[in-house]
Structures are given as structure tokens and as C-alpha cells.
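Let's practice the habit of predicting before peeking. Look at the sequence and jot down your guess about where helices and strands might fall. Then scroll down.
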Amino acid sequence: MSKLPKANKFIDLSDYGRPAARIISTALKDTRFTPIHVTIGFIISGLFAVVCIIYGYYWLAAFFLIFKSILDAADGELARIKQTPSYTGRYLDSVADIILNAIIFLALWQITDANIWYTILAFLGIQLQGTLYNYYYVILRNRFNGDTTSRIFEDSTPIALKGEKQKNVNTLFRLYKLFYGSFDKTIYFLDQSAPKGKILPKWLMTALSTFGLGFQLLIIAVMLVVGLKEFIIPFFISYSVMVFIFIIIRKLL
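Done guessing? Here is the structure:
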């Protein structure tokens, strides 16, 4: 199931795992496995990737990073197939992503000569990149698809949906605000008019999809296996400049 109507779809470079995710979610449709179980699966895959990075098994690390991306797409696919959307799953997914990202970059710092402050800067950079992409993508989804669990402004605790507990939603929303609040505020400050602006062209959304977590993990995986581990952190620092370039482009359209 697509997040967007056919007429508004664009080539999402970060969503390469979607075909495999659909196979997995279809296989789990009539089982007791829930989207939360799949989310736990991608957390485990991400942790396996970290262990492989630290011990120098870069091909295995690449596999688990990509498998993590596939499962990251599969939990949402399963929620849509089973028609069980939840804020619990939405925020757990995001909280797990940012914690795993931090651990992955600490592992990269461990195996390279990168300065810890550059490592932190690279981590902040990828989070800002991902926040910009999600900001524009959620605006698009809300405008055309009526997505209920993805909100443009995460400024208040949502009411739990059927089948989930409000206590869980409250806890995970607080964690989401703790981890993502500053990034959301920064992007909104930089481009406050985006929700009321024109629809972003497909080519720009495709370019922005290089900021998606799936594509970021793919870059890390490729650079690990081709022997460019020392360049991963500098790359993400420098590529963060594109945040400002993409915002300028959107404002000029």
C-alpha cells in the first residue's frame, strides 16, 4: 500500500526496501506478528550492524543496515495492511531510529580517526537532513492522503487510536519531543511557509529523498564495503549544506 495517491508518487531513493517490505508484511498479514514486532526486528538488525562495524565485518554490517531499512518500511506496511495504525508504532519507530543512528555513528567514530566533535556534528547533520525530508514529505502526505499518524506539527500529545494505550502514547511522545523537538523547531524556523506553499515537484522530492534514513544507511553500507570508512563522517557533515540549498530552492519555486 502506498503512502501517496498514484498521481503524486515520486521516485523515493530512500525507499529501495519497499518491495521486500511488502513481501514481508504480506507474509505476516494473517499471523500474530504486529508492526511493533517488526519494529523490534529492525532494532535488533541495527544492533547487529553496529557489532559488525566494530569488529570489522563490513559486508555483514552492510547487510544488516540494509535489512534494517527493509524492516523499517515493513512495520508501516504491515500496519496499513492490517489497518492498525498507531501512534505507539509511529513514535517507537522514530525514537528507535535516532538512538540507533547515534550508536552507529559512535561505532564509526570507534573504527576511524574522526574527532568526536566531528562525529557529533555528522550525527546532528543526518538528523537535520532527515527532519527536512520528513517535513516536506508529511506535508505532501497530509495534503493528499489524509495520513492520521504523521502530523506536520508534533506540538501536542495525540489521542490514542483504537487498540493502543494512551499511557504508551504519552511516554513515547515525550521521548519523541526530547529527541526530535530541537530538529523540528530548527527546520520549521528555516522554512515556516512550507505547509502553505505550492506542492513540491516530484524531481525535488526525489532529490530530497537522499536525506531519507534508508538512503543514508545505504551510503554508510557502501562506503564501508568499498574501504571508505574514513570518509563517512566528513561526507555527512559536508552534505548537510544541502539542507539550506533545498530550502532555498523550495522558496524560489
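How did you do? The mean pLDDT is 93.
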